[in-house]
Every structure is written in C-alpha cells, then in structure tokens.
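ok trying again, last paste got cut off:
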Amino acid sequence: KYRRCCATYESASLRMFRLGRTDTIRSASNASASFVKSFDDPSKQNLEKLDLMEKAVKAHRSYTNMAISGQAIDRHLLGLKLQAAEEKLSVPAIFRDPAYAKALHYHLSTSQVPSKTDCVMCFGPVVPDGYGFCYNPMEDHINFAVSSFNSCKETDAGDLAGAVEEALLDLRRLLEQTPRSKL
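nice, full thing came through this time. structure:
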C-alpha cells in the first residue's frame, strides 16, 4: 500500500544496565530497503534476493546488538535533551531539525513479546497515523497482533496484516525455491 520505508521502532531491552529500561532498534535500514525492493525488481534472481536478505538480517542483528549494549542513539539523544532542560540551556539545534521530528514519528511500532504459551498480546500505535505490531514467534507459527486507529483514514490494520502475510508467503517461496550450498 505505502511502498516506502518509514521510521520504525522496535523495543530493545536495556535490563543489563542498572535502572535500564529500553532503547530503540531502528529496524529500517539501507540493507532492509534493498532486500524489500528486490522483490519488485524482475531482474533480481532468487540467489541475489537471498544475499540481500542475509545482508538485511546481519544489519538488523548488528543494530540490535548495539541497542541492547547501550550503543543506540535514541536514549543518548534523549539524555542530551533532558540535560539541557535540567540545566535551563537552550535546546540543542538537532532537536529543532525537521529530520529529527521525522525520525521520531514512528509509523510502525513493533515489539516481540515471546511467550511459550499460544497467546496474543497487543498494543496500539504510538502516532495517530501509525501501526502497533506485536508478534510472538512460536515453534511452528507466529502470532501477530496489528493495530491502528480507526480515526485515521490512511491506516488499516487488516490491510497491513494481509500485506505481512503475503510477504511471509513470498519469503517462504523464496527459501523453498532457492537451495543454498551447504559449504
């Protein structure tokens, strides 16, 4: 429906730190965009799509590891902003930049809520024109809960859920049709 990348929030636990809460895994990356775009490019062969998927997974793992080890950007920037307010200093210029506001307007807020029981959790979007997307990977299936505000004409949780199902089926076909060397 949208055919574009957006600011995406995925929760990263900082529990390893005293009083640690969460930081942001910024799931959208150049690697993930290249992988997704490859599905709409008829010139891309399956092996190339798989290579792009591997690069996207590696990029996501790398940023996830940075986030859970306290090396992501969002809490550091929040700390800078709060420190300026506490010391009654002017807000640093980065916080007045339109790019900063755009980067914090999370059209997609996601979180894995793992459970060994077959349950579904749900939370709402964090912006009026966004989606909440909760998932629970199980051994042989994944439970999803997708939400959006009915008051927003641009979002439809059912449409997004259908698109995700279609994308997962595309991935399944790609993986089943493209044997990889075991070397």
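cool. Strands lie at 8-13, 22-25, 108-112, 131-137, 142-148. Helices lie at 30-38, 46-68, 74-86, 98-103, 157-177.
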